[in-house]
Amino acid sequence: MTGLLATSLFWLAVTLGVFEAADTVSKRSGRRPLLHPVLWSTPVLIGLLLWTGTPYETYQQATFPISFLLGPAVVGLAVPVWAQRARIRRLAVPIVLALGAGAITSIVSAVGVLSLFGAPSEILASIAPRATTTPVAMAIAGQLGGVPALAAVIVLFAGVIGAMFATPLLNLLNVRDYRARGFAVGVAAHGIGAARAFQVDSTAGAMASLGMALNAATTAALLSILVLLV
């Protein structure tokens, strides 16, 4: 058994199996927010690693193919954005305004709240890029003096929360336009939110992909300027 736990294929299969099981439960529940597959598959995998005493380095190496494929998957999100290019051009002004408001709100709200509780600068630097994708957030946090690993966890948490509550919140606010709904989710909840938006509507998914990409670049630029000013 010890030899099996050390093999890459075993943990790769376990990871895919746990996520597939969580996703099946989510589908059968009608995609209820509290049954988001990432929310449940992550603690299950952490528990299995702790139970078997498997080092994280072993798990990271075993699941490298999944991590590697994340890059092409993110690039693939450009395809639906390209298909919506004519519509996006017509919405250029509201998109720019919404992007600026969303990026600034994301940074100010997270850093502002933690500042009120006296959080150290490392934590503030780690949470500032929380609405961007994980690689971008880790790079930004590292340059700002934060903790890249903590930034990755915060980004994951922000994405799951956004994917869980965006739809009911937007329904409550009576936002019916899938273009606006998708873009808001992409700006606030990056790739995980975009994946959820595609489950709801293809136009919402395309706009979420656009929001995710633009927000990553905008947040990086805003935080770079902020660092220079400070």
Automatic annotation (TrEMBL):
The chain crosses the membrane at residues 62-83, 95-117, 137-166, 178-198, 204-229. Keywords: Membrane, Transmembrane, Transmembrane helix. One of its GO terms (cellular component) is membrane. It is a multi-pass membrane protein. It is found in: Membrane. It comes from the Bacteria. Pfam families: LrgB (PF04172). PANTHER family: PLASTIDAL GLYCOLATE_GLYCERATE TRANSLOCATOR 1, CHLOROPLASTIC, PUTATIVE SEROTONIN TRANSPORTER. This is LrgB family protein. It comes from Novosphingobium pentaromativorans US6-1.
